[in-house]
Amino acid sequence: MGRLERWRRVARARPSVGEMLRAVLRRDRSPATGPAPSLTRLDALIDEFAGRPVRWRVGGQPRPLPPAVDVAAYRIIQEALTDARRHAPDAAVAVRLRYDPAGLTVEVRGDGAAIPVAGLRARAESAGGALHAGPRPEGGWVVRAELPAPEDEAEPA
């Protein structure tokens, strides 16, 4: 069997990146076995990473968010923390949420090696937002998601 034929067999057997992302996003729509993902459970999420240095803070005036934005923000933080643990287990991580009149900014910073961002970008875009990621000048990495949630469209409490 030639090199080209081996490559074709491998390519057919391996799911595409798009198929993998769709599978990840579909998991949010499957029946829940526990509490729904929400920023109201951020402290519990951070507790799951006990034993690792994770700091977090919230700026602005927290308010109810559209469900798609709430879930996307939670999942972006969850995936960034999971990837940080996988790629740099002992490195410090900081999570920052910032509420402003236009929406919510989620920022996750780490001192270790850069993390993959394809799934994070898909989550931000699924809520109508944008994600920027890359190395920090002082070392480490940063992921910043800007998610739309105008104050005048806030969900009632």
From TrEMBL:
EC number: 2.7.13.3
Catalytic activity, as annotated: ATP + protein L-histidine = ADP + protein N-phospho-L-histidine
Any one Gene Ontology molecular-function term assigned to this protein's record: protein histidine kinase activity
Swiss-Prot/TrEMBL keywords: Kinase, Transferase, Two-component regulatory system
Leading EC class: transferase
Keyword Kinase: yes
CDD domains: HATPase_UhpB-NarQ-NarX-like (cd16917)
A biological process from GO: phosphorelay signal transduction system
Protein name per its UniProtKB record: histidine kinase
Native organism: Micromonospora terminaliae
